[in-house]
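Here is one record:
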Amino acid sequence: MDALYTAVATATHGRDGRAVTSDGKLDLALSIPVEMGGNGQGTNPEQLFAAGYAACFGSALALVGRQAKADVSDAAVTAEVSVIKEGEGFALRVTLRVELPDGLDAATGRKLVESAHQVCPYSNATRGNIDVDLVVE
């Protein structure tokens, strides 16, 4: 299947380096978070992943909302991405907090969030690999 879009980014010097996209629209200093022993002067891969996941999930929610004829245009998605110790290595854990607009009943909102989790490319990529907790607020 042909790709609809391909993002290209290059990182140098790992977590204490720089990340740049091929089109130059993103050019960021990277640093290890203070909580993990770094100086925290730049952004980190978990923040970038959280921003991407939150935005992608918000678009997936908008799609399933339109299909269900439910207005979720004022929804907000917050992704919390945690680095956890797993065996000898590390893993990620994600909590997606979805704040739904007033007036949308809880059962419908939960169904839409669960449907968005089935169509979101980030959710599909992480399914079975990362624990993702859906919290509807």
Summary: Residues 45-136 form a domain with the GMP Synthetase; Chain A, domain 3 fold (CATH 3.30.300.20). The chain has two domains: 1-43, 45-136. The mean pLDDT is 95. Residues 53 and 75 are 15 Å apart (CA to CA).
